[in-house]
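Table 4 source record.
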Amino acid sequence: MEDQEIVQLIWDRQEHGLRELSNKYNGYCYSVSYRIVHDAEDARECVNDTWLKTWSAIPPERPRALRGFLAKIVRNLSLNRYRNMHADRRGGGIVNLALEELQECVSDGRRVEERIELQELTGAIEAFLRQQTQRNRSIFLQRYFYMMQIREIAERHDMREGTVKSVLSRMRKELRTWLRKEAVYL
């Protein structure tokens, strides 16, 4: 079933729309979640919570890219679950490592709490990524959105791990410069 048909079913409050959604995207959402929480049961719970959150979000939202819409929901739920489960421990995990790497680009020691600031930051990062090559954009998103390990990214792109690390390091430096230029990060 096409994504827009699934969205329409959920928009119309047809419960079989959730079954279609689950049939089509369960594996994908589980994969996104598991990379973050590293626990099968937690990943399944995050995926189930994703269906509920999607049901609640449609309407009023009508996502144009259902896959991305779901990825954002399951990722946020998984990050929240991860933070709750690891609140007393810092470092050592792939999620913390990836977030720490990106932190140097988007934080000056203060928390970005205001919705407008967050929107500006998001817009600036999106603009930065649009200027990147498809390969670099893919590597960046795989690391910082999907929380993939360096080894996994290297295998997907048929590259050495050191090359992936270099690409990410260079992109973080470029992003920091870009954000300063855009006056998002001072």
